Amino acid sequence: MDLTKDFIKTKQPCADGFRWFLRHHHDGSNYQDLLDALVQAGRANDACWLLDQFGPTNETLTLDHVSAGFIVFAGSLRVRGNIDVDSVVRVGRRIDVGGSIVAGGSLISGDDIRCRGNIRSNGSLKSGGRVKADWGIEALGDISAQGDVQAGWDLRCSGKLYLSGLASVGRDVIVDGAITCAKSLVAGGTLVSVGSVHAVEGISVSTDIDCGMHLEAGWGVRAGGTIQARGAIRVGESLVAFETIRAGAGYGVFAGLNVQMEDWESSARVCASHKPDSLMSGWWAGARDV
Questions:
Q1: How far apart are CA 57 and CA 45, in angstroms?
Q2: Range 233-257 average pLDDT
Q3: At the N or C end, where does the chain have fewer CB atoms within 10 A?
């Protein structure tokens, strides 16, 4: 794709960025060549703006490793080793990495992110598809994905966690904001959220659930330890904990919200070491029987 000065001007670039373009590429430039030139000039914001305006390409860049200030590529990026950059990693399509990813700023991909090591972003992490890391996933900002998220170890997020698919995490899920999951959330360790947790389907963790506000699931919730929230607990089907279930002061515990009352005994069971003080709906079944 060739970008002329008139074509660029129709996108209403900032004055400083357009002056830079006129000085260095007055006769126009190939799209990716212009992105590369902006990267070489240290103009990360301008490169990201250009990618926002003209979108992804079908090119694939394959490298042994990436060590740079930042990288902006319009197509797919394949790296046999590690990605280690001081600032932004921005890719128009897929990222496929044989090692680990460390981004000093945000990590943004228009499609899947596949990493056979660890993913760490000191900013936000955003994927237009799935995110899969054989080790852990960590972001100091928000995490959002338009597909499933899988991590062999922990998933840690200092902002909000928003997933259009399911979450499957080998160990702990630790989130400093709210969690919204369009499918199910499964963790092999604990689930801790400073905000509310909402899963359209179910939630299953091997140890404890600690929710800073409301805990909601369209299906059931199961924990191998305690379930506690500082707001209400609302589930569409059964609610099962090996230890206690506790809502916040003044809030209720509701099970079977999506089940007819005559089916509560089989499909809206509430199991815990002690009956929750504020149990408002569901079939109290005593200590966990499954």
A1: 19
A2: 97
A3: C
